[in-house]
Specification:
The protein is of the alpha/beta class and 507 residues long. It has two domains: 2-161, HUPs (Rossmann fold), CATH 3.40.50; 183-505, Ribokinase (UDP-N-acetylmuramoyl-L-alanine:D-glutamate ligase), CATH 3.40.1190. It has helices at 11-20, 37-47, 74-82, 99-105, 126-136, 151-158, 164-176, 179-186, 234-241, 261-267, 312-325, 344-353, 386-393, 400-410, 451-464, 469-484, 495-505, and strands at 5-6, 25-30, 52-57, 89-92, 109-113, 140-144, 193-198, 200-213, 220-233, 247-255, 272-279, 285-292, 297-304, 331-336, 357-361, 378-385, 412-419, 425-429, 434-438. The strands form three sheets. It has a nine-stranded mixed beta sheet with strand order 11-10-7-14-15-16-17-18-19, sandwiched between helices. Strands 1-4-3-2-5-6 form a six-stranded parallel beta sheet, with helices on both faces. Helix 15 packs antiparallel against helix 16. The radius of gyration is 25 Å and the shape is globular. The chain starts with a strand and ends with a helix.
């Protein structure tokens, strides 16, 4: 069985003599999270096209098919496949799709199930790219016509992954949303012109090894192992939106020395334009977090910033920039951390002049007690967490629904979304006076930083185009679930990734 498993680096070495002998290579690719009779029949039919059947497997980190997936890890999936007599070789892939593998293997036949013959079922676009790679490398696309079984459906129904709340919610969504039609609806988002306004934040993560308590003083001693830099604030939001909308502009501020401007422009997709104010006598905001690398727990945060109001000259410059830009956009997304960029005057202007205003006004360690969402008086969409809502209204014990209604009455908020961690999220539509609840769908929590930004990104564009509240809340919650599975905003929430997650949950 071990002889069947080929290391990625040895592919050409193993296949070269077989091809010299005239052997025809058949290639199948997939996750194969749960081996079933459908897979067996598929492999048997595929083998009939040639002499050697190679099955390649998606690694764990690229499996984004829903809660607690993959059900079986890479090693378990490889061992299961290697035990099947029909299969000659098994290879663990290194990427999210088979394109690079196809270039290495150069199969005579690339085989998929008949359900993939139409690209309408290709949610991610990856299969299309794989097929193009096959043709380019001289291969032929072939299909098996065996009974179709879905691993996701079997796992979703039988593995006890979803609790009763999640199952009931999923079944409700299934009656409303057809995933295939939804893909077409999502394409309408491309034409939205979006302005993202607020603080630019650079998130620095310092990964450390805990050495223990200091021998002289009562504090923890850490050894610095390495550092990583991630985009935060409006830069993270813009990256999340870039895969959904073609035209995005960031209006923000950097330090007077333009720190990290080159880094920001390097990581941003080409469809995002930036317009920066360079703040007088202020640095670019840097939030450094010291992380114990084994547990991934943060032990200390150090902020580098001037969180006072902009000086009068800078305020005037930024206001002029906003006045010039705002009428060009269908949607304005504001990420206001209370670090001095968005003044009361500017908030009033945004409420009055935005065609659709979406807002995340966060309370954090430096702004708690001072930063209030109430400087915004007319907002289409607000995302905040349970603690921020309670802090805003100075109420620790009241039911969350009552507090949501109270805040929307104080400020005109048409859609108020409150996230509640493992308890999920609630949307209150103040126009219809209706509440919508969505359970949590995060399978693992690596880092909560960026979850609110991810949710705001997705929900703002869906609510702008008047998607149903429950669908917008569901997609926003899935975006948040994907976000907390990664450190900070390391990986943006792409359209393909989100739709794939949705598609497999609804199977």
């Amino acid at each position: 069985m071990k002889k069947k498993v080929i290391d990625y680096s040895n592919i050409k070495k193993v296949l070269k003599p077989l091809k010299k002998r005239g052997k025809k290579i058949v290639h199948c690719h997939g996750v194969f999270d749960l081996l079933h009779i459908g897979h067996i029949k598929h492999f048997e039919s595929a083998k009939n096209f040639g002499d050697i059947l190679i099955v390649t497997v998606t690694p764990d980190k690229f499996v984004d098919k829903g809660l607690s997936r993959p059900h079986f890890n890479s090693q378990q999936r490889i061992e299961g496949l290697a035990s099947i007599e029909t299969i000659d070789f098994v290879i663990l892939n290194k990427t999210s799709n088979a394109v690079d593998l196809i270039k290495k293997i150069k199969p005579d036949f690339y085989c998929k199930g008949l359900e993939y013959k139409s690209f309408k079922n290709d949610i991610t676009g990856q299969i299309r790219n794989e097929f193009l790679a096959v043709k380019k490398n001289g291969g032929k696309l072939v299909y098996t016509n065996d009974p179709i079984y879905s691993s996701s459906s079997i796992i979703n129904e039988s593995a006890g992954i979803y609790n009763s709340l999640q199952k009931n919610f999923i079944n409700k969504v299934k009656t409303i949303l057809n995933p295939k039609n939804f893909i077409q609806q999502i394409t309408k988002l491309e034409n939205l012109k979006v302005l993202v306004l607020g603080e630019t934040i650079i998130d620095k993560y310092v990964f450390c090894e805990a050495l223990g308590k200091s021998g002289k003083e009562p504090h923890l001693v850490l050894r610095n192992l390495n550092e990583e830099v991630y985009p935060g604030g409006v830069i993270a939001i813009a990256r999340n939106l870039s895969d959904f909308c073609k035209k995005i502009t960031v209006l923000s501020a950097l330090g007077q020395n333009k720190e990290y401007e080159k880094y920001i422009k390097k990581i941003l997709p080409k469809n995002i334009k930036t317009k920066f104010l360079y703040k007088t006598k202020s640095p670019t905001i840097i939030k450094k977090r010291y992380v114990e690398y084994v547990s991934m727990h943060k032990v200390l945060g150090v902020y580098t910033m001037n969180d006072g109001l902009l000086d009068k000259k800078d305020q005037l410059i930024f206001e002029k920039m906003l006045v010039k830009e705002i009428k060009k956009y269908d949607l304005v997304v504001v990420s206001d951390y209370g670090h001095g960029l968005v003044t009361k005057k500017m908030a009033k202007f945004l409420c009055k002049n935005s065609k659709f205003l979406a807002l995340n006004a966060q309370a954090n360690a430096s702004s708690a007690g001072y930063h209030s969402i109430q400087k915004y008086k007319d907002v289409d969409c607000v995302v905040m967490n349970d603690a921020e809502l309670r802090y805003e209204l100075r109420d620790k014990n009241e039911k969350i629904e009552i507090l949501m209604k109270k805040l929307t009455n104080m400020i005109m908020i048409r859609n108020l979304i409150v996230t509640r961690g493992s308890s999920g999220a609630i949307l209150y539509n103040s126009i219809k006076k209706k509440y919508f609840n969505c359970p949590a769908f995060a399978s693992k929590v690596v880092d909560k930083v960026g979850a609110g930004d991810s949710m705001l990104s997705v929900m703002s564009i869906l609510l702008k185009l008047k998607f149903q509240s429950i669908i917008a809340l569901f997609l926003g919650s899935l975006a948040g679930a994907l976000s907390v599975g990664e450190l900070s905003n390391k990986v943006p929430i792409g359209k393909k990734k989100l739709l794939k997650y949705l598609y497999h949950i609804l199977k």
